[in-house]
Design brief:
It is built from 2 helices and 2 strands, in the order ααββ. The chain is mostly helical.
Length: about 80
Amino acid sequence: MRPHPEPLPTTTESVVQTFVFLLVAFAAMVVASYPMATLLVLAGVGVLTLATVAVLTARRSLGRRSHICIPRTGVCIDA
């Protein structure tokens, strides 16, 4: 008995895959061209993440609960 072959991707899937591939290729070019700027951006994101975690931890230790929702995703965090 032969297994069923994988269905071919739809046009939408192909467009999305192409877009993601081009986006990753562009990001790789930017990283290769501007490594210092890339490191600074990553460091900034890291600092903002740590600051957010610190603020939420401080609020929680003071007895205040935070309910944060990410818009248009339905993802909520109780901290």
